[in-house]
Amino acid sequence: VQLVESGGGLVQPGGSLRLSCAASGFTFSSYVMRWYRQAPGKERELVGHISSGGGSTNYADSVKGRFTISRDNAKNTVYLQMNSLKPEDTAVYYCNARPWASDYWGQGTQVTVSS
Question: Long-range contacts: 88-92, Cβ < 8 Å, 24+?
Fold first, then answer.
């Protein structure tokens, strides 16, 4: 299993970023995909998840209404669209998959929200 995140960077408060996570090594379209983040000195937290078919999503209260998770099963890719970014969104963002009841993680992509 391989998960490769991309799209992070430095953005001003109020700005937007779109993260991508390219997956391989398992049947992507059969599994829920999750986005997590970890800020400096804090535990990793769940940002949200999307069902295998993409018809259902769920988000942490802290990002609800600002972040949107989507997926393209033809491209084996899951996305995290982040709008109205705040300094407290600064973190390393990870995608996660659990095929065969085991957790797999990407290397993460840094998002920094600062003026």
Answer: 88/39, 88/62, 88/113, 89/37, 89/63, 89/113, 90/39, 90/114, 91/37, 91/38, 91/39, 91/40, 91/42, 92/8, 92/37, 92/38
